[in-house]
Amino acid sequence: MPSSRLPSTTTIIGRNLPNLPWEDKPSGYPQVVWRNRANPLIGWNPTPHTARVYNSAPVPFGEGFAGVFRADGRNGRAALHAGTSRDGLSFEINDRPIRWIDGDGKTATPSYAYDPRVVKIGSWYYITWCDDFPGASIGLGRTKDFKTFIRMENPLMPFNRNGVLFPRKINGEYVLLSRPSDSAHTPFGDVILSHSKDLTYWGKHRLVMRAGGSSWWQGMKIGAGPIPIETTAGWLVFYHGVSNTCNGYVYSIGASLHAIDEPAKVLLRTRDYLLTPEEDYETRGFVPNVCFPVSALTDARTGRISLYYGAADTYTALCHCQVDELLNHMAANSEV
Ligand code: BMA
């Protein structure tokens, strides 16, 4: 979409969140996305049995926040842990993983699980994650209180990662973004979407975006990050883009804009990354050079967006942007 066709002010369609964790852009800072100075928010060994809590998905809950967090245990395995926060900046993470049950109340905890996304639809908080099917697949479950977690049917066949639900039905159907993969450190990956009337049976798969293009930071693979944000200009999707270097994969953050009634249609897409590993907590850690966006909190009244990302597969970090400034930047620097 050429910038002239963008409304002069793009606003977020959604709830106000006066307690959004926020920090103003440092004066004179030249980029549209800036880091919170309290980063990293969660450091090494945050609880007795966890070594690293990073790709994390807090959502508004009660007076504060609750969420599902990727934690790597001291045995090296990835699991999902529940946690809470009063201010979205400091967190209490449960020391032990979530114990899932199925619809009959039987234990249904996956052998490993990582990269959760959380979205409230109706009265349920739905969680998607990377599940062991066996092999990388997309898990789906739900909770109302972040205490009892119920497994649902896995939406798609393996191998697949980065399952991200839209926050409402579109044309009467649920919509899920995903990234078909292999079961290892996949060297390829495009974003597709799938439709469902009941969150059980999925079909009508559509290609959304391919890795590559002229920008190398997203040359090898891409994957959707937080739950898409509804705006007056379209669905705003933050995603990770990966480039393959002599020193391994480098994960950066970009964004795209999708038509409201046809989200497979990409209107804008960042040609340059919005955030790339630069700070020590992004370039050094268990897996260096990773900025992996997972969840976003928004305040419709002010247009503020606070984006949580995993840094170096070790830390939870936070960055910020303003929706109209971001969309204007995207319109002027887009390559679809
Ligand atoms: C991906 C996932 C993420 C991780 C990233 C970088 O494949 O495993 O959890 O942050 O690699 O290591």
Task: Provide keyphrases for this structure.
five-stranded mixed beta sheet; five-stranded antiparallel beta sheet; binds beta-D-mannopyranose; 2 helices; mainly beta; 336 residues
Write a brief structural summary:
The protein has 336 residues and is mainly beta. The chain contains 2 helices and 22 strands. It has a 5-stranded mixed beta sheet with strand order 6-10-9-8-7, with no helix packed on it. Strands 15, 16, 17, 18 and 19 form a 5-stranded antiparallel beta sheet that branches.
Q: What's the arrangement of secondary structure elements?
A:
Blueprint: E1 34-35, E2 50-61, E3 64-73, E4 78-85, E5 92-93, E6 100-101, E7 113-121, E8 124-132, E9 136-143, E10 149-151, E11 160-165, E12 174-180, E13 191-196, E14 203-209, E15 221-224, E16 229-231, E17 234-245, E18 248-259, E19 262-269, H1 280-283, E20 291-299, E21 304-311, E22 315-322, H2 323-332
Parallel strand pairs: 6-10
Antiparallel strand pairs: 1-22, 2-3, 3-4, 4-5, 7-8, 8-9, 9-10, 11-12, 12-13, 13-14, 15-17, 16-17, 17-18, 18-19, 20-21, 21-22
Bound molecules: beta-D-mannopyranose.
Textual characterization of the structure:
There is one protein chain. This protein is mainly beta. The chain is built from 2 helices and 22 strands. The strands form 5 sheets. A 5-stranded mixed beta sheet has the order 6-10-9-8-7, with no helix packed on it. A hairpin with a 4-residue loop joins strand 3 and strand 4. 50% of the residues are buried. Bound molecules: beta-D-mannopyranose. The site of beta-D-mannopyranose has 9 residues, from strand 7.
